[in-house]
């Protein structure tokens, strides 16, 4: 796996693809079948994150945290990926499941059941932060609106 | 055969609440602390009664999405990810207290921690706003552990659960040394209540599965002995297996690779998968030739079943005997 050449492809809703980034599942297979390889990949991700604060780097760091059971960490990283590219549905789905693991069920459900509204209002409100509180407020409003 | 079972006492409230005895053995196993957690589907209009039953038996329960189970041909062709749906095909919506339609996906456990773990990893692929929404593969891999499945079976599942490449159940058959199954490891009644397990084992003689199933059997024997006898009766027979949720139990005997039978029963649970019952009923003997099922009546060939050879869910039929 060559992280330096990896380029995250945007998965826009209208393109009609369930998921574009295969790396989450690939790294998961390393985690469950080849711990040595996962450890090596994890180290590469950490090194890359030190140099690059990009959507790609944050997504990979999010995957590694998720697999390690650090869901507070993975949520933090996926909030950054959403902030970097709110049009990318993969970012939102990763965030939704990370929030589910954290017990933030209402937030998770809002994204899972109203992903289109989450993207629309996030962009309309011009939210560009990784602030969980602000994000929670926005999702709560979406859920009320959707009801 | 395979009708709803009504316990005399133990956990009878669950059958009354749900209107069926699906997963009754697993509910009993959770109540007695043998199984850390499970998930279930409860008709929404019956959820209050189900919740009451959970309280009576000391179980915590958590609701997830509501499923509107649907036949495949009711799913619009332009649904994103349509081809990825496997055994469960359903539209998903948020659960609202008091709602009457659909089946509520719930998680049960005696332990809040086990419940939380099962819930966190237990999302099922659902169609939401014309798109299949599925969980990360990591959650799928972890979920077996949450449900108390043996480590070897979880590992086997992680390696072989790929509907584009494998028939998982056939791979488990290849992994069964003597090709004769132990009834304790028979998963083919799991969608009809008469099973001591709910997972697909790594082989039909998996020692860990057999040990766990034996404990479940002992528990049920002590509480509802008639139910245990009935489960054994339903399990100890030969099966013809095509794919997941597509298999048949027989009143019959397997001899020299030929299955001589009086009756065939569809035990796959999903009625849409019952494609061959009519053909099987025309015969009294069958054998496998290549991938075809050849059916005979009084020694003469009367039918030939050619299973699906499509790329997704490839079928490799086999006969496994649990008698």
What does this protein structure show overall?
The complex is a heterodimer of chains A (147) and B (323). By secondary structure, chain A is mostly helical. Chain A has one domain: Serine Threonine Protein Phosphatase 5, Tetratricopeptide repeat (Alpha Horseshoe). In chain A, 69% of the residues lie in helices and 0% in strands. Chain A has helices at residues 23-33, 35-51, 55-67, 71-84, 89-101, 105-113, 115-124, 132-146. Chain A is globular and about 45 Å long. Chain B is of the alpha+beta class. In chain B, 29% of the residues lie in helices and 24% in strands. A seven-stranded antiparallel beta sheet of chain B has the order 12-11-10-9-8-7-13. In chain B, helix 5 (137-146) packs antiparallel against helix 6. The model of chain B has no long low-confidence stretch (mean pLDDT 94). Chain B has ten helices and 13 strands. Chain B has a domain at 240-321. The A-B interface holds A 13, 16-18, 24-25, 28-29, 31-33, 66-67, 93-94, 97, 100-101, 103, 109, 112-116 and B 78, 80-81, 84, 92-94, 116, 119-121, 123, 128-129, 131-139, 141, 158-159.
Which key phrases capture this entry?
heterodimer, A: 147 residues, mainly alpha, Serine Threonine Protein Phosphatase 5, Tetratricopeptide repeat, globular, B: 323 residues, alpha+beta, four-stranded antiparallel beta sheet, 29% helix, 24% strand
Biggest sheet layout of chain B = 7 strands, antiparallel
Helix content of chain B: 25-40%
Number of separate domains of chain A:
1
Total helical elements of chain A: 8
Give the overall shape of chain B, derived from the CA principal axes.
globular
The termini of chain A sit apart by: 44 Å
How is this structure best summarized?
The complex is a heterodimer of chains A (147) and B (323). With 147 residues, chain A is mostly helical.
Q: Layout of SSEs?
A:
The complex is a heterodimer of chains A (147) and B (323).
Chain A: H1 23-33, H2 35-51, H3 55-67, H4 71-84, H5 89-101, H6 105-113, H7 115-124, H8 132-146
Helix pairs in contact in A: 1-2, 1-3, 2-3, 3-4, 4-5, 5-6, 6-7, 6-8, 7-8
Chain B: H1 12-18, H2 24-31, E1 38-43, H3 47-56, E2 60-69, E3 90-93, E4 103-109, H4 112-121, E5 126-128, E6 131-133, H5 137-146, H6 151-160, H7 168-174, H8 207-223, H9 225-235, E7 238-243, E8 246-255, E9 258-266, H10 277-281, E10 285-289, E11 292-297, E12 300-305, E13 318-321
Antiparallel strand pairs in B: 1-4, 2-3, 2-4, 5-6, 7-8, 7-13, 8-9, 9-10, 10-11, 11-12
Helix pairs in contact in B: 1-3, 4-5, 5-6, 8-9
